[in-house]
Amino acid sequence: MASCANCGTTILFGGVYDGMDRYCSDRCRVAAPSDLLRTIRSVPDEVVYNRAEELMRGPCDSCNTEGRVCNLYRFHWVWSFAVITRFGSKGMIVCSSCRRKQASIDFLGSFLLGWWALPFGPIVTIDRLIRNGAKIVLPQRRTPTYDLLQHARSDVGYRSYRDWQSKRTNENSPH
What we know:
175 residues, extended, alpha+beta, 6 helices, two-stranded antiparallel ribbon, two-stranded antiparallel sheet
């Protein structure tokens, strides 16, 4: 007997197909994680840590220097004008000196451009100044950040998913 690929319920008749997966209902098919997401979630922690270590020993995204300990950090920015406030974050795998430099640039930019809209400009600006200020003064981490571990998990999962897809395509193609 077939079982639902999402909830595991036994399917007696019919069901909904999505590729090679079978679901008990369309609701269950929509709620099911994709093959890519399942692959990413199934990556063993040891493999994730090994990939994170490789990324930490790799070149800095900013200065491209090898041999320095790098980590993934998020840098935050804000700018405001009248009633419009725009803010966001960007992640970079950088060495300690580039981390301080990028955090200083975003700190200064947010300090100069963030205050000028009500009501959110001052609130978001203070948040961005605290977040970037911490990256300027705190020492370099020797262990992977949470963001670097998530990036490593996604990277390894995506690569294995891509390999699995190409094998699946080659097996199903007519010779």
